[in-house]
Amino acid sequence: MTKKITLPITQDDINSLKAGDSVLLTGTILTGRDAAHKRLFELIEQGKKLPVDIKGEIIYYVGPAPAKKGYAVGPAGPTSSYRMDKYTPSLLDLGLKGMIGKGARSKEVIDSIVKNKCVYFAAIGGAAALIAKSIKSEELLCYDDLGTEAIRRYTVEDFPCIVAVDCEGNNVYESEPRKYRTL
Amino acid sequence: MEIRRINAADVTKAVKKLFMDCNYFIGNDIMSALENACECEKSPVGKSVLSQIIENDKLAAKEEIPLCQDTGMSVLFVEYGDKVVIEDGSFEQAVNEGVRQAYDEGCLRKSVVSDPVFDRINTRDNTPAIIHTKIVNSDTIKITAGGKGFGSENMSAVKMLTPSYGVEGVKKFILDTVFTAGPNPCPPIVVGVGIGGTFERAAQLAKAATFRPIDTKNSDERYARLEDELLNEINKMGFGPAGLGGTTTALGVNIETSPTHIAGMPVAVNICCHAARHASTTI
To answer: Do residues B144 and B155 both lie within one domain?
Structure first.
């Protein structure tokens, strides 16, 4: 069964999500990947204010391709999440509630997801053209100089993803491959 | 053979078309393998992921938009005929101009930074391209081009094995590399393996192997068997489509080899995602 969630995500929503659930997200999400995370992390370390309020938000690890004429956004699939692992616990401690990406996370990140009662969603890597259909508009928020890596706000409608790590730390990247492993 | 003159603008035009085409249109070899995998996949989630990847690739081709947002670093394998003279420019500049035009006009993502460690400033036109050139005895230029995404590139590895490791050592290193990559390189993957040569030749062969269609086999049947055996072993790992579990972790394993030193047996494993993009042309 697919769960529909209207953003901003509530704590009750998060508590009800189980690893492996299919989810459709509707509302707004932030985007950010390697370079933007590095900048946010450095500001946090220096005790400075962030240029975007991440409290209660979900961040999508994406660096989109440019939009073709007549399109709201370009192809925008997830990038590998582990590259953000170094920065993630600090963002979750500041109130970020969720992330959308692809692939495994470190133990530190999963511990932080459990501690902060957050959620990590997986989108399908390489399904960028299809995923972009659920992104209705974008707004540049900051770090324009980073090009594709700038932080944007996406308005999404039925954005498809799967709960990869739930707030209890259950992790589909651990549990599911084991079911099919015949080595 | 007589000297043949090729205008730099024709090189640029060809390179531009190759990069746009390979980013919009997935090869028939990959599409057939995806469709076949979708039939055979045992995991319901895996089946659903595969059908979404197929839908995505068809959508991208129909609308002529990139099938993946990571349109890659531009890699070219060139067989440059020694009877060819480039007029009105240089070959390398003409190639980079083709990349520039493809990534700009074709709405492909510019993913290259100027310096790996310190500056990391986006060059904003996806140049410079990585150009592997082989001089051949002909009056043509054959170019095979591909956009290489880094989600899978980052999962690749080279190891300087020595002769006593034997074929078992080769298999172990390849399988260990794929297992360590796990769900990260956008499975189902294509595994390119380069064995032999020197340190850098093995890596180059591995990349060339990812550019070879997956419905072809190594011409030496011992390596062809090894390709089949490795594919079978990789698909027992259970990572499955998107790493969410299943029986399709790889679509193909391609091995390329080269003579090597008496003391060595270098092995390189270049992992490519399911968006294994490449296109060829001859000028």
So the answer is: no
Which of B113, B130, B148 terminates a domain? The answer is: B148
3-class state of residue B232 by DSSP? helix
Q: How far apart are CA B59 and CA B226, in angstroms?
A: 35
Q: With b meaning 16 or more CB within 10 Å and e meaning fewer, what string describes A67-101? A: beeeeebbbbbbbbbbbbbebbbbbbeeebbbbbb
Give the B window 175-234 contacts with A, CB below 8 Å: 182-184, 186, 233
Nearest to B238 among A125, A162, A177 (CB): A177
So what's the pLDDT on residue B1?
86
Rounded Cα distance between A2 and A9, Å, is 16
Name the 3-class secondary structure at B225: helix
pLDDT value of residue B281: 98
Q: Is residue B41 part of a domain?
A: no
The pLDDT value recorded for residue A183 is 86
Query: How many contacts does A have with B, using Cβ atoms within 8 A?
Result: 162
Tell me, yes or no, whether B34 lies in a domain.
no
pLDDT value at position A106? 97
Q: What is the pLDDT of residues B90-103, one digit of tens each?
A: 999 999 999 999 99
Q: Is A33 one of the annotated active-site residues of the chain? A: no
> Which pairing describes strands A151-165 and A135-142: parallel, antiparallel, or unpaired?
antiparallel
- Which tokens is B56 given? 């995505």
pLDDT in tens, B159-210: 999 999 999 999 999 999 999 999 999 999 999 999 999 999 999 999 999 9
**Based on the domain organization, do B186 and B141 belong to the same domain?**
no
Please list every residue in chain A whose beta carbon sits closer than 8 Å to the beta carbon of residue B64: 68
For B56, nearest residue in chain A (alpha carbons):
A130
Query: What pTM was estimated for this model as a whole?
Result: 0.96
Q: Domain end: B133, B148, B163, which one?
A: B148
Structure tokens at A128: 């960028």
Q: Is the pLDDT of residue A1 over 80?
A: no
- Residue contact B56–A80, C-beta within 8 A: no
| Residue B98: closest CA among B9, B184, B163 | B9
Domains annotated for chain A, with CATH where assigned, are 2-180 (3.20.130.10)
CA distance B237 to A105: 19
Span A65-121, pLDDT tens digits: 999 999 999 999 999 999 999 999 999 999 999 999 999 999 999 999 999 999 999
Domain of residue B212, residue span:
151-276
Q: Which residues of chain B have pLDDT under 50?
A: none
